[in-house]
Amino acid sequence: MTTGEALADLDRPTDEPLSSLAGDSALIDVDVAHDPLAGTRDLLNGCFLRSTAISQASAGYPCTRKDTRTQNRSPSAPGLRASLTPARYRGVMSDTAAPTPPVTERRWRDDLHLAHMIADQVDRLTQARFDARDFTVETKPDLTPVTEADREAERAIREHLGRARGRDSVLGEEMPTTGRSPRQWVIDPIDGTKNFVRGVPVWATLIALVEDGQVVVGLVSAPAMTRRWWAVKGGGAWTGRSLSSARRLSVSRVSHLADASLSYSSLSGWATAKRLRGMLGLMQACWRTRAYGDFWSYMLLAEGAVDLAAEPELELYDMAALVPIVTEAGGTFTSLSWQAGPFGGNAVASNTLLHGAVMEHLGTETD
């Protein structure tokens, strides 16, 4: 398949924690499938986040290692304009609430409200454990770390989903999959556990809903960063203080690798994937490279702050919530083999304009 054919084949929210002011946690116990007023109640109650700084762009957490090949380089003037013009290329502040979806998508809207309320409660739990540093760290069979906070957070999410969406399946990182419904919630209680255990505030709870093989809802909540992002299929990608006061996200319009900013997690996995040479070539071709890592790379992409993100080995729960946020912002999310969505075991995400160029470097084994 040529690059053109592959592209043509792709479907084209202060310092206080992010917590709900709705006040009625019982709302999450309602199964909207049997309560036609649930969506209306959610809209009236809202899912308000206390932070007033949430809509401001975060400075990020750049890698301290300097890239000697690119540190003195600058993008061309057109590339700089494309990456730094917020009103035109990186979304604009919404004067009104996010647009109301069509009738067929209102159930997903209710699911998004539920995800927000669950995230509000889980954020309080995980932020308290992160601040207290009162957890022990274990090593799982795959040699990755896990803490009591991971398990407590996933247990809390599953309990809420069990009450509110008891007929749905749930797939998570720390516990066995439950149910066989075509509607499956995919959750990562703490994405960025290595950061969490070392006191680095770049970690988040990821909540997604997959329906009939498509990710239709995605939410990423990073309480230590006072940031939250979300998307519903067909409803755009958003970040902000609440569902009714948010900024719509848009990827950049950078169209040349020489002007592009690339984010990744580490280099070791690329050697295992036999694509290290291709990754190094891509890094050299780009204007700027930084290892923001994990969910943060993809949220920066959706905001238009970076143009590319890639990881050679990921699980479904690592990616599912990210996909609709990236794609609804105008980006493209595939595997290294051009499979759209989070099902290919790895990720290449771009502002769409650069996807073909990235795949020229990463799409085949080079080692």
From TrEMBL:
Keyword annotations of the record: Hydrolase, Magnesium, Metal-binding
Keyword Metal-binding: yes
Highest taxon above the source species: Bacteria
Residue numbers binding Mg(2+): E173, D188, I190, D191, D318
Reactions the enzyme catalyzes: L-histidinol phosphate + H2O = L-histidinol + phosphate
Biochemical pathway: Amino-acid biosynthesis; L-histidine biosynthesis; L-histidine from 5-phospho-alpha-D-ribose 1-diphosphate: step 8/9
Annotated segments matching region Disordered: 1-21, 59-82
A GO molecular-function descriptor: histidinol-phosphatase activity
Cofactor: Mg(2+)
InterPro entries, per the entry: Inositol_monoP_metal-BS (IPR020583), Inositol_monoP_superfamily (IPR051090), Inositol_monophosphatase-like (IPR000760)
GO BP terms, alphabetized: L-histidine biosynthetic process
Xref: Pfam families: Inositol_P
UniProt-listed Enzyme Commission number(s): 3.1.3.15
Classification via Gene3D superfamilies: 3.40.190.80, Fructose-1,6-Bisphosphatase, subunit A, domain 1
Keyword Glycoprotein: no
Protein family membership: Belongs to the inositol monophosphatase superfamily.
Database matches in PANTHER family: 3'(2'),5'-BISPHOSPHATE NUCLEOTIDASE, PHOSPHATASE
Entry function: Catalyzes the dephosphorylation of histidinol-phosphate to histidinol, the direct precursor of histidine.
Name this protein carries in UniProt: Histidinol-phosphatase
Lineage, uppermost ranks: Bacteria, Bacillati, Actinomycetota, Actinomycetes, Actinomycetales
Gene that this sequence comes from: hisN
